[in-house]
Amino acid sequence: MTTLSDLEAQAVRNRPAFGEHAHILCDNLVRIYKTEGVEVVALQGLDLLIEKGELIAIVGASGSGKSTLLNVLSGLDVPTAGLARVAGMDLLSMTSRDRLRYRRSVVGFIWQQTGRNLLPYLTGLENVLLPMRLAGNKRDARRRADTLLELLGVADCAGRRPGELSGGQQQRIAIAVALANEPEVILADEPTGELDSDTSEEVFGALRSANRELGVTAVIVTHDPLVSEQVDRTVGIRDGRTSSETLRRTSVDGDVIAEEYAVLDRVGRLQLPRDFMNALDMERRVRLELERDHIGVWPSTPGEENND
Amino acid sequence: MNAWQLVRVHRGAAAVLALLVLTASLLVAGLPRGFEAAYDDALNVLTGDAVAPQVDVAVRLRPNIEEDEFHDRRAFTDLDQTLRKALPPTLARAVVPGGTSHQSAITWGTPVSGILGRDTPPQRFVDLAWVSNLDEKIRYVEGREPGPPRRLAAVPGNPELKDLPLFEIGLVEEAADIMKMPIGTTVLLGNSYTIAAQVVGLFEAADQSDRFWEHNAELKRVTVRPLPQADEPDLMAVGVIPDEGLRELNARRELYYSWVFGVDGSKINARNAPAMIQAIDDYRQIVEHQAGDHATGIAQIPAAMFELTTGLDQLLDRFLAQLRTAQTLMFLILGGLVVVALGVIALSIQLMAERMRAGLGLARARGGSIGQIARTGTGTVAMIVLPAALLGYAASYLVPGPITPIVHVSPAVIAVATILFAAARLAFAHRKPLLDSRDDLVVPKSSPRRIALELLVIVLALAGAYALRSRGLTTDVAELGSDPFLLLVPAALTLAAALITLRCYPYPLRLIVRLAGRRRGAVPFLGLTLAARSRGATSLPVLILLPALAVSVFGALVSGGIAETQRTAAWQTVGAQARIEREAEIPADVIEKVRALPGVTSVLPVAKGTAQVKTGGQTSTVLAMDLAAYRELVAGSPLVVPDPPVGDGIPALVSKSFAPYPSFEIGWHTRMKLTNVGYIEKLPGLAFETGNLIVMPYEGPKLAGLRDYTNILLVGGDVDQALLKRTVGLADATVETVDAARERIASAPLAQTIIASFTIVTVALAAYALAAVIIALVIGAADRARALSFLRTLGLSQGQARLLTVLEVAPLIVLASLAGLALGLALPAALGPGLDLSAYAGIAVTEFPLTLTTPILLAAGLTAVSILGAFGHATTGRRVATALRVGESA
């Protein structure tokens, strides 16, 4: 006799698991900050898939949960529930020792404040060497640091302290620091937030070259259109959930075509853009109709409202 | 990133930490040295004041049979060597070769049974003495040194006495007059086994002040012993004999031999005193328990009953009892200081940790393990703390005083505690790698576990205080030793008070905030709101300020209590502002001269003597004085004078033993009959408290048919002791003043030390409290700068910003000070019955006068200094632009 669990197992076996091959996987990720009597739900069931070697931007309003997501991905914060996997490592079930190894060798990150990325009393080179020393990678450390500084175009800043460098130089050294231990993923939280557009361009260029030349998966949280419009994929986050994705491709005549999609989760939930809802005065419920090649969404009519 | 780099980068915070550790090490290593030096001084004073026979160790032997006798100097010297060799090492180190050491053979109670060639007066005694080093101690002023004994073939008039030993003796000069024994006198000594002695020389002491004479006082004077039932007193002298005289000196006389070992008081100190007592006890066992045990007995004389006499062990026992009291009090003071010092050091570790937070946090986020972070941070702290502690320890060697283990241990304890705290603090702070915790969330409520713990501390402290009051902290320590639980009570009480303050301070603050909210100015409201929201580092200063003030106020009150009691003790010793006392009568012209002295307001003549009371055959101190005038004379002093006796005949106040008799006769210059009209317990300064006492009016002797008689003058008014002494001009008169007596009590090493250490500790605590407030402000500086920069963009002026800062810290400081003041005022009441301070004041300190001036000044001063510190910190504020930048990036 076939039991329910047999059936369930069979169903799972036949289909590949959600995001099985993704480099970064977030499935129904929840993060709740809890202190006595007050709960702040920063992530409320967020889904996200990122392929290896991808360069994506995450955008969203302030308080939407971007930074929390990044902290979770960087191993600095532990999610409350859900699934988060980066480079095959489950971020929820890691021991503190695993977490340390993860931070040392799997991810690197860059914060928005230039001053926070670097220790002010160390030179650029010493800052780059620091993560390698912390991880005990002493062999070739110097050579790798030089290579990285060279790659990011700040080789001349090696001997200078952060106070003697421009914001852009500081952020590029910060990228070198993040890349020091050859991570598979780099995470950047508003890396160009404090910079003017020219410098932003330089820093983003540095990130992109790291992504392309070192094959590192890069996730950039940003408000900066300069950045978000130059990546292949932009993920929008709203109220702790991924709400939209913008995909860019280059057309045959060389134009960049951006198409915005709403994100549909595995159980079929979908966030309608707020503008759309406002325009059609959609509230509380909508009427759906399945057509041959699409689903129609209509605001509920007043008569239907009354039947409520 | 290495530790040295962090020290260099955070050199400001590092310097603060180093300074605090240095001063703490210096204080905890230096103060005990000072204390130990004071204990030793006190012991030296004690041994210096004691007479030589009390301090020295003497072995005595009363020979009973021929075998016990010593007939030449050699025998004495040999046994001296043997006895010295047997001294336990501790005692041997204190025994000095010269000094008061000597051997002697002295007879006692040898009556003069006849004087050749004249009548023999009764009640004359001449003893014979041989003393090993007498030649150095005396000088012959007449005649010659005595020679070897001879034989006296016959005594004229005493045919039964034949072939007697005839000693040549030297007598003290005054014996020739008092006992009428000039050179050439030959006396017969003893009623049985009579011997003869001929005076051949008269001597005087070469050095009257030589402590040798304290052992052999009877050698240098004629002892006059009045007898109750006889008209003539007994007169006793000692004749000295040369070495050869020992041949004829035997156990047929009442004779004793002494081997005196002079003890150097300076070789005994507070630390070896217990060992010294043990050594004396051991030596007593060795010396006294050798009879019948010739195999092991050191003297090898069977049946000789040796005896060890010394008062040193009792003296040291008494001293140790006092010392334990002193040590307990020092422990309390030092304990308070250590608690506060560690608190401030913890605060500066907090500052250091806060300063290193960004760097270490980044390293942690970039893959530093908790071990790496804690190691680096702790290494940094160790690099600051160890040299500072070492320097403080080295500096403590500048403080004079002996070195005890605590001198080495306490700086090490401070250093280790600091480093461990830093390690724990850093490991805790960086246990999670997230750089920032979310501080926009509400503060979690205290866990029930923490509340239960705090309640436990409070209950334990109160129970401890109760136990302390009922059992005493310093009483019985001599027998039982200190009770560690009770020693911790003051600290626990302070902690309990601090916990209560921390728990309760939001309530009064809320009220003030509400009041401030109604006023128009925004600054008070904002400042107080910030104060109400402040947490974490800001609560530590409460834990520091409160004990600091409590200990200071407690110290001030105890010092006050001691000073007040010293005054009482001085009055009780003197009996008036000045007292002139003499055995013989004080001439009338002297009285007039004293009366005429500038500053003297009144002079009260008193007659004092010892009377034979016919009832029950007792003796009593008798005072004839005008009690009403005396009461006026000592008005305003702690002395209490009873009403003067009024009644028929010669009215008198009497002490307990005469209370049952309505009237009785006494013999004082003449026979007088007294009428008992009242009870008197004591008159401090004029009569011993324990003896019998009779007080009659000054005219008493006159009423009995004699004339007025004065041998004591009680002087009122401000007068100098030296001047009074000069004016009186009588060598045998004692002149005492209250000021001199108080000076003498107050200058005792222990009393001086306790007062000095209270002062040092108070100053140190005030400095620590100030440091605590400033450090707490510096720790919160980034947060404050952020808040202020925001407010300044809204139009807050620099002055208002300062006021805001002051208002932010002031409530906590003021409340902590009030709580500290209250606790400090309550501590003497709580601990007073348990603290025996008599060692410092001469008599028991029973009252701690609640003089509020000093404590309130202390509290106000400390509060003001702390708030000024806050103001100073706020004044060095940044300009708007800087403030804004800080606000953005912090």
UniProtKB/TrEMBL annotation, chain A:
Record InterPro entries: AAA+_ATPase, ABC_transporter-like_ATP-bd, ABC_transporter-like_CS, ABC_transpr_LolD-like, MacB-like_ATP-bd, P-loop_NTPase
Gene3D superfamilies: P-loop containing nucleotide triphosphate hydrolases (3.40.50.300)
ABC transporter domain sequence ranges: 24-264
Top-level lineage group: Bacteria
Gene Ontology MF term list: ATP binding; ATP hydrolysis activity; transmembrane transporter activity
Pfam family, one: ABC_tran
Keywords: ATP-binding, Nucleotide-binding, Transport
Any Gene Ontology CC annotation: plasma membrane
Name the record gives this protein: ABC transporter ATP-binding protein
Native source organism of the sequence: Acrocarpospora phusangensis
Automatic annotation (TrEMBL), chain B:
Domain ABC3 transporter permease C-terminal: 761-867
Membrane spanning stretches: 329-352, 373-394, 406-428, 451-469, 485-505, 542-563, 754-782, 803-830, 850-871
Superkingdom: Bacteria
Record's keyword annotation contains Transmembrane helix: yes
Keyword terms, alphabetized: Cell membrane, Membrane, Transmembrane, Transmembrane helix
Membrane topology reported for the UniProt record: Multi-pass membrane protein
Pfam families: FtsX (PF02687)
Cellular localization per UniProt: Cell membrane
GO cellular component: plasma membrane
Name of the molecule in the record: ABC3 transporter permease C-terminal domain-containing protein
Organism for this UniProt entry: Acrocarpospora phusangensis
